[in-house]
Amino acid sequence: MENRPNTSDQETSEYVKLFIDPVILTDFENLNLSRFKLVEETESQIALFKKGDRLWVNFADGEHCDFPYYRKNIVCTLDGAMVESGLLTRSDAFDSFIKTTQGIEKKIYSSVSLNPGENVKDLWDEIIKKVNLISNESHSLRSLVEKLLDVPFLQKFESSIIILHLKGQTKAELLGTIWRGEKTQSLVEVKEFNAFFNSIKKSKIKSFSTDSFNKMNLPFNGSFLAKEVMSRKYSLVAVVSRHDFLSYSKDEIELFETCIDLLQPHFERLIDQEFSDKRISELRVCLKDFPLPLRIRDGVTGTSFMNDLYTSELQEKDIFFNKKVEGPFTLDLYDSDELRHYAFDLFHFQRISLLGELLNTLRHELSNPLFGLKLGSQLFATMDVSTDSKELMAEIQKNINRCQVIIENFSNLYQVQTETKPVSIKKIVDESITLSKSEGREVRKTIEYKDNTENLMLDVPLIFVVQILFNLIVNAAQAMKNMTTPRQIELTVSTDAGSVFIDVIDNGPGIPEDKCSQLFKPFFTTKSQGTGLGLVLSRNLAVKMGGNLEYLVNNNGKGAHFRLTLPRT
Questions:
Q1: Sign of dihedral through CA atoms 339, 345, 348, 353?
Q2: String of DSSP letters for 364-411
Q3: Rg over CA atoms, the chain
Q4: Mean pLDDT across the stretch 441-448?
């Protein structure tokens, strides 16, 4: 075929080098090739071939594909050549090439469409039979989606996918096969899925193009058939495509919709099976790694599930939480060191952080009025007033300074500390007494420093030690709340070669002997409003510092005696 370029642009234009398979060359006889130059295949930028019932395209960079799927690549190639040559708009020759090529593709591929009244009737029984067969053979959702392409009228299709959204999930899932052998799977935003689902549902045609769904990011280009399915638990869209831009016949649309309707109960079965198994698997992983010894017993079969922390040494008496769950199952949680070293570290951190935030807010809110009072008292003291008034102003300033120091100390105390620095025993005890002053206002407190320990420096986190002593003092004060006799708490500090001991002793009712062994168990409490966490947390903090917290039997039989042990270095 002769190439007849436009002579007016011949000197200024560059041509797209094109090769056309001789088998289809005659189909281009009426094409305006003024922007193209026919060359041998080895020299071409674009080469067109007829392969079977498809139009095939080779690009100069080695990329090859069927024409409709990469139509946009051809457009970009031609556009690029025309821009380079100074032709910024598509010419009639360019549009004619695209239109002619699409016409040839449709001509080649026309045998795919079903003929109403002939192929449909012949295939119908076979289609029903095949749908039932693949339903029974499919043991997974992906398998069912892939085998959908085995249905007779879908055997010329290249891709079969579903986009599935389980109710309550934050993402939808796209899965299936493209090019009949390449598996695909991705997540889709719920917003995009809902828009796609509603568009498919509202359409009366059920034949679509990827150009209309740019945000959906389907893994192919071209026309496709789609059918929506909705149940109480999920929504999904089933999609099949031949990877071309040809429209689908009415028979193809009806057959596809019928196939999906027949498959709906099987979708339901496989979705329930797979995602139920997935949820059970995820639950088993969570229970397996749960930070407490855990056992789930089946009251009917007698079988049990135990996680990694459960050991045969654990006894029924170690159970601190027991609950009957749905069905014949019973859940048991056991006390363990893991509980103390994991769960209550988090509890402690959250409580300390909250107190720090509250105290910083309090300091901020009180600073301005305290500063105003202090400035006012100073100005009043400079005026010509009586001696009594000046003494009153001095007392006001003194108390304002004291308030500012207390607020500053509180704020510093409840800042999360990333490192330790030496702190004196006396400062630790004084801070603890100050913090607990509200709860122990009517309790007499005595402090004794033995062995010259008053100025002893310890390299421990101030906040940890104060938290422990605060808990012990508050517990003692609350235990003595209803006493009519004088209430007293003794704090004694002593030391030996490697440790410092801080004893907290009260003269309250004490702890019953049968309760002593449970004092440091989580959630055990003798208070009506207690959480049962304070002593567990306190011992945990002591152990983290290399020390210990223990309960000692009081020799005189009255009150409670706790000892905090800390390392000297």
A1: negative
A2: HHHHHHHHHHHHHHHHHHHSS--HHHHHHHHHHHHHHHHHHHHHHHHH
A3: 41
A4: 86
